[in-house]
């Protein structure tokens, strides 16, 4: 669990450290660039489309983990638009709240039920 948490922390710090100066220099209106690359049908667009799939899965998983409650849907939307910084922060908090229990981290405390060792 320590290696997982360290990895999450490194990802979070790296992306924030990259994003802050990028947003300061180029602004935060990334949608035209993101979807423009997809429309041009090149490798940057393929990467963005692949990444978009991960964002969709991340948002759906966050909403599902919270049983598609209003808060869960809001968290899913935040995860979709916030990407890795939101997901890594969420997983860090979940790893501590669950005391490192993978079933609880992945399924949520209600669904983990009998699977949880804690």
List keywords for this structure.
6 helices, globular, mainly alpha, 118 residues, 81% helix
Task: Give the CA-CA distance, first to last residue.
Answer: 15 Å
For the CA atoms, what is the radius of gyration? 16 Å
User: What structural category characterises the helix and strand content?
Assistant: mainly alpha
The dominant shape is globular
Secondary-structure element order, N to C: HHHHHH
Q: Quote the average pLDDT.
A: 93
User: Uncertain regions: pLDDT < 50 for 5+ in a row?
Assistant: none
Q: Tell me the β content.
A: under 5%
Q: List how many beta strands DSSP finds.
A: 0
Give an overview of the whole structure.
The protein is mainly alpha-helical. Helices cover 81% and strands 0% of the residues. Helix 1 (2-26) packs across helix 4 (70-97) and helix 3 (43-65) crosses helix 4 (70-97). The longest helix has 28 residues, at 70-97. The relative contact order is 0.11.
